Amino acid sequence: MSKITDYNDISQSYDSVREPADACILKSLMESLTGKCVKDMDIIDIGCGTGNFSEYFLRFEPRNLALMDASEGMLSKAKEKLQSVPPSTNLSFKHAVLPNMPYEDNSFDAAMMNLVLHHLEQDPDGKSFPKIVQTFKEVLRILKPGGVLTIISVTPEQLEANWFAHLVPKNKERWHKRLLSHDQLKNCLSEAGLTLKSAYNTLTASYHPDHSNPEGPLSEAWRRSISFWGTCTEDEIKDMVQNVTRMKNEGTLQEYVDTHEKLGIYGALHISASKKEVQ
To answer: Rounded to an integer, what is the distance from CA 193 to the centroid of its chain?
Structure first.
């Protein structure tokens, strides 16, 4: 269960501000690395949220599509959304808290974890990520030989590239301990027995269409759509609102955004694919 965000509460408005960014890339990685079409796959969506990514994959009629999440509210929304299921697809839902994955060994051809990793460590230090490694070991167990894990995550460099992170410097420092660099992710995967095969950075925040709205941080609904704000103190939010309002009134807010926004250089998201090698 995430200690950052109350997803049972957020589930009511989540879909109005978030989209399944780059799901087509995940599909391509799964198919190219397994040598199978999605329609012949058993797939699991780990930390599925409201099922945005699973909704995309249902278009291609996978053999089995399993959704699991720690939030009953998110799962409830996913069940409401995914009503139109192809007759050839077996759809299932499970409530489970990572690293626990209540599935049999060698069950899935592909697994996806989309913006999940930063929720896992309870007291991150930025150096070791034991719960993430434990989670990856569980993924290894439930993947079939030759199976693939795709991950969408955010690196510390990409956090720095988000203009709004600079509005709350102390919270930005806290988040640096929560996010894995590319090398740290690779090492955690390797420790768990998975082999990194591909990694990319996307240059646009397509998962959050209203990302560049200069007045976004003034809106509680806007902030609630981004986990970063869930670890801010009340005083930090109060100070941030005062500063953004001041810049808005002075006419300097857009200049602030333009100065600090660096997604075009460092990327918005890190997408990777790793494999359970055939022994």
So the answer is: 21
Q: What are phi and psi of 267, to 5 degrees?
A: 90, 160
β-bridge partners, 112: 45, 150
Beta carbons of 81 and 59 less than 8 angstroms apart? no
pLDDT tens sequence across 67-104: 999 999 999 999 999 999 999 999 999 999 999 999 99
Specify the residue for token string 């790793």.
274
Distance of CA 69 to the CA centre of its chain: 12
Pairing mode, strands 143-153 and 269-275 = antiparallel
Domain 7-156+169-209+264-275, CATH: 3.40.50.150
Which sign, positive or negative, has the C-alpha torsion 86, 92, 93, 98? negative
- The residue behind tokens 């599925």 is 48
Which of 56-60's residues contact partners 24+ apart within 8 Å by CB, and which partners? 56/20, 56/23, 56/24, 56/27, 57/23, 57/27, 58/82, 58/84, 58/85, 58/86, 58/89, 58/91, 60/27
Listed in sequence order, the residues at least 6 apart from 45 whose beta carbon sits closer than 8 Å to its beta carbon are 51, 53, 54, 57, 65, 66, 67, 68, 111, 112, 114
Q: Where are the domains of the chain?
A: 7-156+169-209+264-275
Report d(CA 32, CA 65) in Å as an integer.
19
Question: Please, are residues 56 and 20 in contact by the beta-carbon 8 Å criterion?
Answer: yes
3-state SS, residue 165: helix
Concatenated DSSP letters of 66-105: EEEES-HHHHHHHHHH-----TT-EEEEEE--TT---S-T
**Could you read off the pLDDT of 161-183 as tens digits, one per residue?**
999 999 999 999 999 999 999 99
